[in-house]
Amino acid sequence: MTTDTSTWQVSAKDRQERLERWRRMLAGEPAVASGRPQRRRNPETNWATGVWLHAAARAEMGLELTAWEQAFLAPLADVLGEEEVRAMGRAYREQRDAGAVALVPQAVTERSFDEPFTSEEAAAHMRAVGELAAGLSNVASVNRTRLLAGEQLETPEFTEAAAACGYGLTLFGGAEFGAAEVGQESAGADGEAQAAGGVAADGMPPGSLTSFRARLQWDGFRCHEAAGDQWSTADEIYWTAACSTVGYKHTTRTRETDRVSSGNEYSIGGDHSTGSVAFFDANFTGNLSAMVITCWEADQSDAAWYDALGKALAESVDSLALIDFVLNFVPGSDLVGWMITAMDFLATLWEHLQNKDDLILTRGFALNRSDVKALYYTEGRRMTLGFNARSTGMGHFSLHVKYTGDTPPGPPPEGSFSFIATNWTGLLGSPFTRDLDAACLVPGTTTDVYLFKGDTYVRYDCNGEEIRGGIRSISSGWPALRPPFTSNLDAACLVPGTTTDVYLFKGDTYVRYNCSGESVRSSGRISDGWPGLRNTPFTSNLDAACLVPGTTTDVYLFKGSEYVRYDCSSERIRHRQAITAGWPRLTDTEFAHNLQAGCVVPNSRHDVYLFKGERYVRYAM
């Protein structure tokens, strides 16, 4: 390292200020004194920063660097210039000798400068950091069914920790929806590793990992609470993204959105140079992509800052080139450990480089083919990401990201969550697009279901997507019923083994209704007619009921977070358990408790519809 390659032209005074900022960070102090809470740091996860500083100090001392060290130093040297990198290495060496380094792990500070770090050591440390993930509140493992259901991805604990640390990392897990490599293991719905067998997870034969164009774009943002800089109570907001997957690296900085104030939605003008709203647009051939998105509040920075920011983004995308970098640079490294280490390194870099612009929050993600497929089948193909830094005085924003790429190969995920109004198009304009009371198959048909709400019902043709005969009152369409069964039913289901009868439930009573003869065959208290349910909560106020697909004897009854499978022929409970235990793909979703209706999918021996609010799920048993 002999020349200064930086194009970030700054004064000697500014360079000295950045160096002093770095010295404060090394000592465990905030880079810039302010009234805001100090960024929370964990030296044990800031291992990459320590290795980088160790290499910088060795370079400053004139020691011969390994090819591995040179590759590690090069990206940031391109941002700051080799002279400043040497100065940072010297500052680290001096403070380490004085015992004044609190930023990086002790294992790094105790290392002799005569000993370079190796890629094998890097891999071991990455795995060790990955083992810490369960105890890091700003690292979240989210069941991808939450993404599929369009639910909020952040918990209050994650939000608080991400704001305190300056960044949050989200990884998705649970049932796989995408393809797996030949022989690759993936986590099954029961949480155990399952080898990819004769058919890959996306329905393709092993070895035929079909590529497709995956594209993510900015879709606007909402300001819940403005950050407000020293000049104004309104914000000028822009976003940066750095993304990587096999054969693809991309960085972008959006145009600024001016006069951003609390309580309003805003569009994003796209890249500051090209206007493109896409921040990820790649031929998705691998199993993994990584991305880092940062929300900034602009404060009159100059062109030199934005040039340096672009270089820093390029450095970060090199750091996040997970396929090439992790598998070759640090062979065998654990994904979670590397992502945590990379995010900590980038958070440290941002804090050191930060100019007049305020960094609000950084979010990191690792997406595989299953996650992309889940996003594709999410309502509107959109996910919302929280950038909530209220606790550090930097406001609260929600970023909307939209998938606009190709349809991922293979069938839709089992358990795709959708809005009733989206896929039951014949119900549009009616009250039956949300908050159903009950549902059941129409006896003797392979296409129709009854849907009940309030004192009305419809007979819906699932093939023709239309209501047959219009909306009718229960009392007119089911003339033998008397109150309380003429409104606000709790549940309904086809009587097992018949093509004419339906069970209706209300409170602690039920009726068996013959639809062909329009008569009540039997009625009474649930505890009397269903004796196997006695001494359980299932004798009153059921949430939902449905026939067990493929049987002529059994029904499912749901209440709260539990369900039973009941054998109507022997009057006994086959099993009673949590919904999430018997229906594992509903874990961490709104369908894990307090369902509103359910019924067997017409002409199916395996699938069930479950309804709640304005959504439904088709679940394959």
Strand and helix map with partners:
Blueprint (H helix, E strand, L loop, with lengths): L11 H15 L20 H14 L6 H14 L1 H16 L8 H4 L9 H13 L7 E5 H5 L7 H10 L1 E7 L11 E3 L5 E3 L16 E14 L9 E11 L2 E6 L3 E4 L3 E3 L11 E7 L4 E9 L5 H17 L2 H8 L5 H19 L4 E10 L1 H8 L5 E7 L7 E8 L13 E3 H4 L14 E4 L6 E6 L2 E6 L4 E8 H4 L13 E4 L6 E6 L2 E6 L4 E7 H4 L14 E4 L6 E6 L2 E6 L4 E7 H4 L14 E4 L6 E6 L2 E6 L1
Give your account of this protein's structure.
The protein has 621 residues and is α+β, with helices and mostly antiparallel strands. The strands form seven sheets. Strands 1, 2, 6, 7, 8, 11 and 12 form a seven-stranded mixed sheet that branches. Strands 5, 9, 10, 13 and 14 form a five-stranded antiparallel sheet that branches. A four-stranded antiparallel sheet has the order 15-30-29-28. The longest helix has 19 residues, at 335-353. 44% of the residues are buried. It has 16 helices and 30 strands. It has three domains: 1-117, no CATH class; 139-176 and 217-411, no CATH class; 417-620, Hemopexin (4 Propeller). A hairpin with a 2-residue loop joins strand 25 (554-559) and strand 26 (562-567).
